[in-house]
Protein 1
Amino acid sequence: MLSRCLSLIVAAAVAVSPAAAQDTPSPAVVEPAPASTVAPTASSSDPVPTDPDPLTPPTSDTGPARAPGAPAPTQQAKSVTEVDPAVADLRSRLASWPESQSGALKADLQALKDFYAEPDAMRVWTTPNGLAPRGDAVISALRRAAAWGLEADAFTLPTSPQPGALPETLIEAEIHIGLEVLKYARHARGGRLDPTTLSKMIDMRPRLYEPRSVLEAIAVAPEADAYLEGLHPRHKGFHALKGALASARAEAAAAPVGQGMPTRVADGARSSMERRILVNMERWRWLPDDLGAFHVWDNVPEQVTRVVHDGKAVHEARIVVGKPTTPTPMFSAPMRFVIFHPSWGVPEGIKANEIGPQLRRAQAGGSSGWFFSENNGASRVLGRHQLRVYSGGREVNPDSINWASVDVRRFSFTQPPSNRNVLGVVKFRFPNKFDVYMHDTSERHLFSRSSRTFSHGCMRVENPLKLAEVILAYDKGWGRERIAQLVARGTTTDVTLEKPVPVHIVYFTATVDQTGKLHTHSDIYGMDSRVASALAGRSVVLSSARSSEDAKPNAPAERKAERRNPPKREVKSAQKPSAGTPWNPFSPLSAN
């Protein structure tokens, strides 16, 4: 399978990746939005996804869903003894209501027209005597919008009609409240922005509800305000951030001003923290309502993977994620395969830009340092990497081909399983259009680094066999012994999961732990400014979030050791190894 995970390469290094509340711990942008940006869009410099997994399901956008609690169409007819005489005037006023150029607002207005066009339609928010209890309840919810991470000034609250108000005033209030309710429902569901416009590496789409079905549902809900606020994400991670937002605002309000104001609550820092929490609350709106009772949670800024079962993290490990120039994308997909001793297929980019030129030079008798000084044959070049060449599904002798006269992309290059394979012992495959996956690696030393952004998009797992054990114990009831047998076998074994496991690759720079403590994680791809700018409709530049772990006075021992003895910079040019030292030419390339 071709992979984009190694689609970029350092040439010299070659020299030849509303449901039940979920107790989930707390996609990708290459560079921060420029200061002049108002509504950030996907940058042309973002890596373009290539070579999707052939089993990637086709993209299906079924459009808005029917709101929960909305009566079925056959149940909508109501038995009424008296038709509301104001409805006729309401319909007439709706017909002449000014239409907005916004597609969303047009849809809301049409939903109101359709809702009140029913023969048995009744007013929802007002009565002949003024505001109805249901109308009063939703106005109260609109006033609390800021507490839920929405913009309070996005909603225009009508003046509550008083007893004896003119019929025209009541009709205006009925329409006005209805439009604001639909706007709130859309914003609560994540409809303020389309995440896919922020970066080509984001494949997340909030699921909105049909406006008319929202009206039908809230019109019969026991508590209209509770229904409206129930449209926000129900995930525990979202509600934990909601609490952190309230705390941050309370701390800001209580902070002294003027001389002697503590640095930690200075205006700029306070504003930045509040905005960062709001940005992360918005990302929760992009996720599925149901994350899965058993799922894998990869938080890219935190550089950690977790397996969550029934709301509890049952496994946690560090991961290596994509570099800022080759970011790990953000999406959800079901894991379908666990592959032991996988083969690695060389991606198109490496074939054309690296392997091809090396083969041509080798056959021409050229030399590029010690690597080619002892051979001039294509087979020797590929043998250094344990690569085999295939054409039409059949293995061919690389020395029998004139590489100077053929298109190298017509051939397949495969690295079979071995202790030098760049994917290690096990690979976790969840077909997706980015063709990224999770896998083992021989670059074990990188897991001790506090910042682990070294890959080309895929995620390398610190303890892959333990991850395989947890997943296969859940899916098949297998124990550690069965995993050990598959590893000892040494041959490729594809294990198909009977219960596909949801994998969520997310980007949260602010999370709250089980004790209620807020943690921040480095904004490694400069994503926060883009989201903040899109939400504000103007340029908002947030400084890169600093990891709260790095800010601790007593940082983990390995991080303190790293500061005392920084790891040596990886050598990017091919060098002959010392005698007796095994050399893995793909070591610099295993950042897939």
Protein 2
Amino acid sequence: MKRTLFISIVCSMILSGFAHAQSPPDALPAKFDAMLSTLFKAGAPGAAVLVARSERVIYSRAFGVANMELNVPLQAGSVFKIGSITKQFTAVAILQLAEQGKLGLQDDITRFIPDYPTGGRRITIEHLLTHTSGVWNYSSMEDTPKRGAVDFTPVEMIDRFKNQPMRFDPGTKWEYSNSNYVLLGAIIEKITGMTYGDYLAEKIFKPAGMYNSLYASDIRLVTNRADGYSMSEDGVVNAAYLSMTQPYAAGSILSTVEDLFRWKQALRSGKLIGRDTLQKAWTRSKLADGTETSYGYGWRMGYIQESRSLWHGGWINGFFTMALYLPDEDVFVAVLSNCDTDSPDDVVARLAALAIGRPYEYTSIHLAPDAIPGYEGVYENGSGQMRVITAAEDRVYFQSGYAPKISVQAYQPDRFFFEDDVFLTLAFERNDAGKVDKLVTRSRQRIEVWKKTDRPIPSPDGVTLDETSLMPLIGEYEVNPEFTFAVTREGARLYLQATGQEKLALFAESETKFFLKVNDAQLEFVRDGAGIVQKAIVSQGGRTTDAKKVR
């Protein structure tokens, strides 16, 4: 469990920067080598890396060891478990069946899994594809790590989670759930009469020329298979065994960086699904209220230096993977690592930025002191979220809601980057009168515009409430059966403590709205008609979760 109730959005945002001069193609491999050689060391688990531009591979190399006990080096053609990148293949298989008229994306899943207990809710194929179904994620169940070595049939896997309570009504929220893609795999088998692995081999891998890709097997001999590793207190160890019948259609494919490039080419050529269908897969899905998510059908959506990106990562015992595509520049990057300690998402972003000539490199400049006050203020988006800009001693500071202040550095007039995170940038926009009226935050996930308001900069300690106002809020709140938190009082201050976490001070914005200082999480307590507190709405980074008051 993390130190805070929710991971701070500031720490998770990976934001973009500004254009740099395009590097000559023959200069890029040396730059890639310089970057990667510092990350992956000889004699240790490493990675296979590929960068392609248009139809040409401009870089392909491996670093580190495929088998540490035999000292076998990794190769560019080494075969890795790719984890959740598998979801792209499952999504395309479903879309193939949709194009053939064998299913509709708005079909209720009970058409194919009649005994699935939906509780009267309508869960569609599209809900599964976009992670908006509300179906419980089996990976978060407490017994999952203990059962890693157990083989399951698809029906047995579904039986594991189908009776868990729904997380939310389908279509109302986005929440990543591996169970969605387990269900999709079962639907593929039900319609085709083939196993999921056989369907992929015949309908996807073969036509795409992916001859080194397969549904994972621990029995079958796989040429150039890389072993997976983890880190312990004693150093590198073999990764814990996991039966690949469990990740199934959510994460059980083996592949290579070259095959993933062929996958991209096959999709772009229309060889697997029609271009209009692919465009739908590569479009952000929307919730029932019209809110856009950052997920399509098996792909995440984001940005690299303001360029649109389509990507997915994978984590599975012993492996961390990432594949990213910039459709406007036709640049593809894949990094497959055989150690599950560090995600390669940062290195993939840097490689992609280098490939399009806009590396994440900034040099700070000095701003005139009279320019800095114009940035100060409270900025809001259309969803009630807040960003605060303050200044002190000729330095500019950024706050996400009530989270701690973070110093930012100017690299151009009105353009700033974060000292501890080069992926994070801010841009101030001015009106016709030359006054700052907007703040634009650019991230790997999203580009957001914040309008400058006339609101005063809020007090970092909030407002003081009397005991009468605080007492009704005290109690235990349940997000789900596996996650609860308690709200307690000490003097004139409320505290929040989740199970297994430290106690955190709550600060009042009003009699019902409170915030945490350690991140930008906020709580709003909701009363019924009689004035009794029924729940707390927990908000962070544009997402909300209801926590029912249980005592």
Protein 3
Amino acid sequence: MNDWLAPVRRVLDRSPEPIRFFFRDNNVGREDERLYEMLDVFAAHEIPIDLGVITDLLSDSLARNLQARLVASNRRLALHAHKVIGRSFPARARTLADHKAAREPIVDATAGEGASLCTEASAALNLISSDVTELAAVASADSAGSPIRVHWCRYGPGGREILGRRIAVAASRRQPIQFVLNHASIFGSELVALEELLLLLANHHKAQCLLMRELTGSSSANDAGQDVAVRAPIQAPEIGTATARWWPERFSRTGRRVRWLWLAACVAVACAIGWYRLADVGPRSQFLTARVLRGSIENTVLAAGTLQPYAYVDVGAQTSGQLKSLHVQLGDKVKKGQLLAEIDPLISASKVAEATATLANLQAQWEGKKAQFELARLQKARSDDLTRQGAQATSESEIAQSNYKLAHSALQALEAQIKQARAELETAQANLAYTRIIAPMDGEVISISALEGQTLNATQQTPTILRIAQLDPMTVWALVPEADVSRLTAGQDVYFTILGRGERRWHGRLRQILPSPQVIGNVVFYNALFEVPNPQRELKVQMTAQVFFVLAQAKDALYVPRSALGKTHSGRAGPHTVRVLGDHGSIETRKVEVGITNAVSAQILSGLSEGDTVIIGAASLAPNHKAGSLHSVKPPR
């Protein structure tokens, strides 16, 4: 966790009661890809968010995507109709007649808050359902309950500390805090900073993230995640005063038979309308339904990680001096033994010459001492012969013996000095060789710490010149919360995605979990490591990765939304029940055997067939909202 969130964490730690947080984005309709990236981050941390949909910019693809996310959000996503006053936008979707003819499901929405959201029957609300959630009560609430707005995009990357203090001050007032987002400006470092905030709020017990309707107590059609369709506006023609005068005159001039024909036609129309309404408000329109589908399902543990080199080495200088030349640049590929840099060799070369001259002098002295030793040895041998023959005094023999020993000790001392001189010469030669910096391994240059002309001092600490790393493969360091680390074992399948490439997955196998923990914001994490091939160098050092550890998975399996499963009688694991909706509105309760489950879907092993319609919840319709059949949406995996 970065330091900019430290004030927020301290306020949450000291708060006597939970602090409520809300997130909203009123610009849905622009920059869809960045919207999907931001919503993926919110879904990964299970943080709710309110979205204001600009109805004039609603497209088919955006509507279908929001519809699927609405069903899979488990009431963590709310949509509101949003129209910018005084501005018009070119319609991205097809015409309304095309929508009606195609009968494609488009997301229903509810109105938002303040003057920026349409709360009247305007042209924007004609494009959506009339089910409108009034959130304007938030603005008129008392000062103690109204939320404090924090505009995320007013603070750039350089103002992150200011934003952290602003959030901390707002949280210290113990009032709800509303973050106003703009997904079009949230990408790169901004998206990383937003994910850091969501990680803190998702793991702190004093942070409570809610939807705006939970503050006002209102409800809407999308509370249960239902999928409803955009209806074409049906506007009755305006009846003028001339027509009002014409009708009684014409009716009065009509004969009895004509009047009876008019009355019969009106009764027939009324009966048709009544039959249509009664037929549409059946059991099917009272429930949210989904189809039993076949596909892949998996249960995963989510973690945040960073990419690091598989192996690297910091190349330094073992001798002091000026960095004379640098033969590589950032990104260069090097081989073991390749010349990387050179330090000025003048001082080292002079020391080598000095040590060489000293050694030569000592060797010359050794030659003289050697000759003196040989002379003393011959004199001693001659003196010993004369003494044995009795032709020489004993004192002369002792002098010869003493000279021999002195010459021998002088020769040994000089030999020791020669060995020392040779060692000093080898040291000087090694220091001279150290002026040439050689690559210790194959790899790529990923950082350079010293520049040409810089003086390096290797007396106390080895200075680092550059770093060489092996980028194929790469190692992913994933931070796993302590609540999930016990579910992981070495060898498990794992995959991850990176920012900006959410559709691409990189796969690997868990290598190890480091025993030493890392505490971030009073939450204990453990580092899980695994490798991934990187032959094309698409993965860079320090990239942020969203890691998924696969606990269980199944392919070509039947699955339903998890909300379709009923609770067991004992509350423990066991057979579940689901309600199946028949073709004629009949409801049947079946026992099913459940396999793999995750936050969205559940695998069905027995009890259901592909294509069955299951009930996932009750529809919540406003008094003026016309009930209708609800479409089945395939939930995302």
